């Protein structure tokens, strides 16, 4: 057979692109569009796929408080074994006693240097965090899922209160997400924090607290407020005061959204102009208002 007639259709090169050869950064982008089950199925193809997909499979993990206890006392070693790849950990059940009695930060999480985001299903106030610390955590989410509590426990649940001083020992925290908390603060006592991004989901506050007190060091760049439409707080005097009076000198982006419900605040064009006023929000470049079935984005023209 002559050289010119050789069949080369089956020949591959060492530069062939396959799933196994893609960099982690690209894998993370691709797998955002797949379910966890899909990724696990791919990892089951063979050992090579399983080893290659470990960074994706264990990027986000969830544990119960009992799981964390088992890790600390050495019964299991799942978190330590895969700590190199775990960036996000979610504690999925409620256990107020463990919050106080078990210091997961110094006994376990201190060894997880790749951990960036911790989500805690917490039924009570956040003041237990005053006695905890972490030097690498960049995002903290405090939420409440009542499905892990009995009906009597839910009825006896105390008001969930949050103060910035509760997280004073999380020095590198940049993102904070709070669900269903009553916010308060002391104007005379502020922690040293570098928070840049705050998300509040159905949170409330009372006089004399103002939401702008969270921006005492003029460091917050993004503020997101999410509300259920049946939450009476969104038509309260305190909320109206925030919408019409308070100022955030450093804020660059703000998002306010409402789900289905009857109680929706007035968001006419006069309000939009008020928010985009350079005296109240001098650095604000983007405002997003979300109603059921409608989202509008307003951008402040850049001054040349």
TrEMBL record:
<dbReference type="InterPro" id="IPR001810">
    <property type="entry name" value="F-box_dom"/>
</dbReference>
<feature type="domain" description="F-box">
    <location>
        <begin position="16"/>
        <end position="68"/>
    </location>
</feature>
<dbReference type="Pfam" id="PF00646">
    <property type="entry name" value="F-box"/>
</dbReference>
<dbReference type="InterPro" id="IPR036047">
    <property type="entry name" value="F-box-like_dom_sf"/>
</dbReference>
<protein>
    <recommendedName>
        <fullName>F-box domain-containing protein</fullName>
    </recommendedName>
</protein>
